[in-house]
Amino acid sequence: MKIEFAPLYVPLRRRLQTAAVVQWVFSFLAMAQVCLAVFVLLCVSDWWILGLLYAGWLYLDWDTPSRGGRRSAWVKSWHVWMYFKDYFPITLIKTVDLDSRHNYLFGFHPHGILVAGGFGSFCTEASGFSQMFPGLTPYLLMLPFWFRIPFFRDYIMCGGLVSSEKASASYLLSHPGGGQVAVLSVGGALEALDARPGALTLQLRQRKGFIKLALKHGAWLVPVFSFGENDLFDQIENPSGSTLRSVQERLQRIMGVAMPLFHARGIFQYSFGLLPYRKPIHTVVGRPIPVTQTPCPTKDDIDALHSLYMEGLTQLFEENKQNYGIPEDKHLNFI
Prior knowledge:
It is a single chain. This protein is of the alpha/beta class and 335 residues long. Helix content is 39%, strand content 14%. It has helices at residues 12-29, 31-43, 48-60, 73-76, 80-87, 116-122, 129-132, 152-158, 166-173, 188-191, 209-217, 243-255, 299-320, and strands at residues 90-94, 104-109, 137-142, 161-163, 180-185, 201-202, 220-227, 234-235, 262-263, 281-285, 333-334. The strands form three sheets. It has a seven-stranded mixed sheet, sandwiched between helices. A two-stranded parallel ribbon has the order 6-11. The longest helix has 22 residues, at 299-320. The protein is globular and about 55 Å long.
């Protein structure tokens, strides 16, 4: 395999962008393991009292990820996130104003490998969410598993990440006075197994739990499509029915975490590695779908709103796809 190396002389700005993405990839792939190791070593060292104190704090703070988390405006405004955004670059696009008197459930599509567009748009201020949607506070929902890891949980909560448990979403969507935005990657970890350049397959047809939540709390639904999200990484072929896909799906059912075998570029060369490609991401926030609060929604209520949501997402995609390089004959595939 011929290796394409990066030029020797690269502008400092681009080096800083790469460094910002390296730390972001590290935080997703290895920081949790490092934090857990640090905690274990702390507990068996002469500093065990610190480990014991943190364990007590963890016990008292256990439910915080399901009760709005503990966001930090300072962390969300770190300048490193500007370099992170500019690496791809990531652009957040508003189609209509959103009334801050309502709570919203943003359905984010597609999941991609690492949800880069979702993180850059809703967990940092680099894309200008607060200026674009004044009065609204976004929270990106993440698998509960990650909030059980010492130290790591505290870091990710600073960025506005909260648990994806039903109780967590309900806490946000029932907030009196409105202004809360729960951002959910509807396709979840399973959709990551189909993430590759050009893929338009979404796990949505049987995903109705978020619809029921929106109805129970009267939260307005907003479809969000992140153009370019699936173009950041290549993935080893894993067609449905293959041995690799069967193993991945079994691990996902057991652990709740998908294990896509992805690759892209490296730090000093462009031929292989775990850094994403420099491909633009355009995260488009669609029109809201008004939802009337229904404390005990019926199956017909859920199915009707689910159909409206799929229509709204399809319309958002079709209206914008040619702006972002998707051919006219390409359409979303719901499974």
